[in-house]
UniProtKB/TrEMBL annotation:
Entry-linked InterPro entries: DnaB/C_C, WHD_DnaB
Pfam families: DnaB_2 (PF07261), WHD_DnaB (PF25888)
Basic and acidic residues compositional bias, start-end: 393-408
Annotated ranges, domain DnaB/C C-terminal: 318-391
Species assigned in the record: Fictibacillus arsenicus
Domain Replicative helicase loading/DNA remodeling protein DnaB N-terminal winged helix: 10-270
Biological classification of the source: Bacteria, Bacillati, Bacillota, Bacilli, Bacillales
Family under the similarity heading: Belongs to the DnaB/DnaD family.
The protein's name in its UniProt record: Uncharacterized protein
Region of interest: Disordered: 392-460
Length: 460
């Protein structure tokens, strides 16, 4: 492990440079979004370097930085590396005979939109702050947009306001003066700046091994674009995926959607991770209805229906399946629970109603196709509470009963499974004695008909 004085000592010099300026939004992003990730000192170090970049560009010793921040060189180096890792700082070094010289290039923070849609930094911020605080901070960066429906744009164009130049004013001398190189090589124009971004060492993930695991029959090679490659490195780092796991996720996405981009790959990996790790089958199925979605929270049931609502709200899908079978639910059944709660985003209480509805009406069997059809329907209806789910279940049952009644009321036709009602041909009838015809006719006709039906059935 490298100790700090092997990288920098107080007599090493540094200079700070930047190509942009911090506006008010940038400062809010730094304080509210970056500071929870890098800590107060790294945040303070960044602002200190910005002040030095604005004041002068002369080289200073790191001893000066220690005096300004009142922190040790070890802490300064630690804060500097955090800024580098988060994409706010680039560091250049030149070794001299007796000391080293550093150039610190400050990078602008991401815009609020870029930060929250990055899918990388936002995940770390969510885990650091929790859902409530994360949502609160995110909403503080939202700007309400006025409804422009019914309005017509009346913005003036350049030609509406300014007149064109006379040909005499557009001389070659003017062009030469404008294009004259008045900027020396060691300076540059002040710009808004390029936003910093997080980079990864490609050696951390064996990209070639992942590509070799992907079947070209499933995913064409040209699908893996440079932008997607960069995201693959990030996602592999966040979710600790091995090349084999990542190749499987890429093939799953492309096979199911026919295309692959950063967003649908991220969704697939997030679903896989939740399923395999923090929210695996048993853990996910042990969840109960959220308190804010309980219709009878803190209330005593006053009817049989309310008792049933209370039951669905208080037990987990795992417990409900246990109550039905008296044994531990099978992995197949738990995967159906995971489908309802992960893929269709149904709440535990609504999932309980769905399971009960299918089990009670399907001879205690969880039919996969029926579960998926109803779950997707309820998801589209945005069902979240147990009473809403029970109302839909009653409606499903009523429609099913009406359909069955219509089906049974229709005239029956031969459908291939029913036995045909045919008379026995004369040539199959045995010869009979007229004297015994009346006595045996009924018996023989029944036996012949049975034999013919058996013959017909066996020949199918």
């Amino acid at each position: 492990m490298t100790v700090h004085f092997q990288e920098v000592v107080p007599v090493d010099t540094y200079s700070v440079q930047s190509k942009g300026v911090l506006n008010e939004v940038d400062q809010n992003v730094l304080t509210l979004l970056y500071q929870p990730l890098i800590g107060a000192f790294a945040h303070s170090l960044y602002l200190t370097l910005w002040c030095e970049a604005k004041m002068n560009h002369q080289s200073k010793k790191h001893q000066h930085l220690m005096n300004i921040t009142q922190f040790s060189l070890k802490d300064i180096l630690s804060g500097r590396k955090k800024l580098e890792a988060i994409g706010l700082l680039k560091t250049l070094k030149k070794d001299g005979e007796s000391s080293r010289e550093y150039i610190y290039e400050l990078q602008l923070p991401l815009s609020p939109k870029a930060f929250f849609t990055d899918g990388f930094l936002s995940i770390y911020l969510f885990n650091r702050l929790g859902q409530t605080k994360f949502n609160e901070i995110r909403e503080s960066f939202l700007i309400p947009q006025a409804d422009s429906s019914g309005f017509t744009e009346v913005t003036a164009s350049f030609s509406d306001v300014f007149t064109s130049l006379h040909p005499s004013e557009m001389t070659s001398k003017s062009y030469s003066e404008i294009n004259e190189n008045v900027v020396s090589e060691n300076v540059s124009f002040l710009e808004k700046g390029v936003q910093g971004k997080v980079t990864f060492g490609e050696t951390d993930f064996d990209f070639e091994a992942m590509v070799n695991q992907i079947s070209t029959f499933v995913v064409p090679k040209e699908v893996i674009t440079p932008k997607l490659k960069e995201s693959i490195y990030k996602l592999a780092y966040i979710y600790q995926l091995e090349p084999m796991d990542m190749s499987r996720q890429i093939q799953n996405v492309y096979y199911s959607t026919g295309e692959i981009n950063v967003e649908n790959l991220r969704r697939e990996i997030q679903k896989w991770y939740r399923f395999e790790h923090e929210e695996g089958l048993p853990v996910l199925a042990l969840r109960t209805q959220p308190v804010h979605l309980k219709a009878l929270q803190g209330m005593e049931p006053k009817s049989q229906e309310e008792e049933l609502i209370k039951y669905f709200e208080e037990v987990s899908p795992f417990r409900l399946l246990e109550d039905y079978s008296g044994t531990t639910p099978s992995e197949v059944d738990l995967k159906l629970v995971a489908y309802c709660m992960l893929d269709q985003n149904l709440t535990p209480g609504v999932t309980n109603v769905l399971l009960d509805y299918v089990l009670s009406g399907n001879d205690m069997k969880l039919a996969k196709g029926l579960i998926e059809r109803i779950a997707s329907h309820w998801a589209r209806k945005k069902v979240q509470t147990v009473p809403e789910a029970m109302a839909l279940a009653r409606d499903e049952k009523r429609k099913s009963k009406e359909w069955q009644e219509k089906k049974t009321s229709k005239p029956k036709f031969y459908n291939g499974n029913q036995k045909p009602n045919v008379s026995v041909p004369d040539w199959l009838k045995p010869e009979t004695n007229p004297a015994k015809e009346d006595e045996n006719s009924s018996t023989n006709e029944d036996e012949n008909r049975k034999w013919l039906e058996s013959l017909l059935n066996n020949s199918k």
